[in-house]
TrEMBL record:
Disordered as annotated region, ranges: 1-26, 372-401
Catalysed conversion reaction: 2 H2O2 = O2 + 2 H2O
E.C. no: 1.11.1.6
Protein's UniProt keywords contain Heme: yes
Top-level taxon in the UniProt lineage: Bacteria
Molecular functions (GO terms): catalase activity
Sequence similarity: Belongs to the catalase family.
Name used for this protein in its record: Catalase
Length: 485
């Protein structure tokens, strides 16, 4: 029987024997001249890039976005320019705190990252399955994530750190309530909503702007797992969500989401009852109703997990003309942190990899760096400005400006009401949903060793809703601190 393809080394030479190392006789030591062996072992040692600091465990799929409503009066983004227009995309779903080998069905937010391959370059929307986040300033992010990771001595998860941080960061209460509710463990990646979470700015052809928030509404319906079922599945099939997404697409059951935005006039940002750039808060849909934009469909599985899912890189700073950022302090930090993480983890040329490479032509003066695997600009002009007809700027594509005022100093947000929205959410829950919420929180707080931490957190729950705090206190065998009543 003949073989169609010869096994080769990475430099293309045919391999004569892939079963036996070259040795000095049948029992002699292995010879260093066996360059095929050396290459295999050296490459094997380097097969794992560092895992993501957060969102390490995930699954991905290809698909498309189709515009279903005319939004050109709000944005000049070309991929949103006409009803019926389709744009290819890649999506990565993930858990946040766990390592690459952790279980899918744990209580954790889910990452919801979308890469649109538009004709004006890639556009990344890097969000979660929740509309808010735990903190609102990026300077607190490393500390927050440290609490979600392992204790440096015991190498175990540390509920003392988790609840100490949250109890000292009352802005986290809204997201904590969501996390500990039924929504904390989605049944699958297909049965959850997605959100851009941050406030962004859309700008139209005339330079007029609006503030917007993204909402992806699952067409499969919302389904969640109880704590008990999630724990059981984590033991039986830790890759449950990864497997479900792959099998659904493989079987032609393509998951889809309707995409909407909330739209706020620029001037409303100065008068709205919550700071619209505070990612720990939502905008009421009564004030700013959902406006339909399009539909996202996932219809193709990756051919290779590492090449596509693991090497996919997303950053909220990957923008296209017509979509700008806002003064959201958490977003401002992510503009640097995400792209920098990819430069460290995958390399300075990560955007040249097939999964990240834009569909349109790339023209710039960036050269060299590790793993530069294209023609590296050849002999073309490598600086700018130049008089040699090299790529030049297009003033019409500048980001729209906005006025800024104030003193340069370290300041907090002006609005510090961290309890109203969390309390409203609690009161929206049904009787059974509240019961499960309280049970989940009590179970998560019981291992905390410090009574002071427990009482401090109980105070936050009580300020959101007296019943909320009282039931947590009773579940922990404590009393609500008198000073918060």
């Amino acid at each position: 029987m003949t073989k169609d393809k010869k096994l080769t080394t990475s430099w293309g030479a045919p391999v004569g024997d892939n079963q036996n190392s070259i040795t000095a006789g049948s029992r002699g030591p292995t010879l260093i001249q066996d360059v095929h062996l050396l290459e295999k072992l050296a490459h094997f040692n380097r097969e794992r890039v560092p895992e993501r600091v957060v969102h390490a465990k995930g699954a991905g799929a290809h698909g498309y976005f189709e515009v279903t409503n005319d939004v050109t009066k709000y944005t000049k983004a070309k991929f949103l320019s006409a009803v019926g227009k389709r744009t290819p995309l890649f999506v990565r779903f993930s858990t946040v705190a766990g390592e690459n080998g952790s279980a899918d069905s744990v209580r954790d937010p889910r990452g919801f990252a979308v890469k649109f391959y538009t004709e004006d370059g890639n556009y990344d929307l890097v969000g979660n399955n929740t509309p808010v986040f735990f903190i609102r300033d990026a300077i607190k992010f490393p500390d927050f994530i440290h609490t979600q990771k392992r204790h440096p001595q015991t190498h175990l998860k540390n509920p003392n750190a988790v609840w100490d941080f949250w109890s000292l960061s009352p802005e986290s209460l809204h997201q904590v309530t969501i996390l500990m509710s039924d929504r904390g463990i989605p049944a699958t990646y297909r049965h959850m909503h997605g959100f851009g979470s941050h406030t962004f700015k859309w700008v139209n052809e005339d330079g007029d702007g609006v503030w917007i928030k993204y909402h992806f509404k699952t067409e499969q319906g919302i389904k969640n797992l109880t704590e008990e079922v999630g724990t059981r599945i984590a033991g039986e099939n830790p890759d449950y969500h990864t497997e479900d997404l792959f099998n659904a697409i493989e079987n032609g059951d393509f998951p889809a989401w309707k995409v909407y935005v909330q739209i706020m006039p620029l001037e409303d940002a100065d008068s709205y009852r919550f700071d619209p750039f505070d990612v720990t808060k939502t905008w009421s849909q009564k004030d700013y109703p959902l406006v339909e934009v399009g539909r996202m469909v996932l219809d193709k599985n990756p051919e290779n997990y590492f090449a596509e899912v693991e090497q996919a890189t997303f950053s909220p700073g990957t923008l296209v003309p017509g979509i700008d950022v806002s003064p959201d302090k958490m977003l401002q930090g992510r503009l640097f942190a995400y792209a920098d993480a990819h430069r460290y983890r995958v390399g300075a040329n990560h955007n040249a990899l097939p999964i990240n490479r834009p569909k349109n032509e790339v023209n710039n003066y960036q050269r060299d760096g590790q793993m530069r695997f294209d023609h590296n600009g050849g002999g073309s002009t490598y600086y700018e400005p130049n008089s040699l007809n090299g790529p030049s700027e297009s003033p019409e594509d500048k980001q729209a400006g906005f006025p800024v005022t104030g003193v340069a100093e370290s300041v907090s947000y002006d609005h510090n009401d961290h309890y109203t929205q969390a309390g409203d959410l609690y009161r929206l829950l049904s009787k059974d949903e509240r019961k499960r919420l309280v049970k989940n929180i009590v179970g998560a707080m019981e291992p905390v060793e410090s009574e002071e931490i427990k009482l401090r957190q109980i105070g936050h729950f009580y300020k959101a809703d007296p019943e909320y705090g009282t039931r947590i206190a009773e579940g922990l065998g404590l009393k609500v601190p008198a000073e918060v009543k």
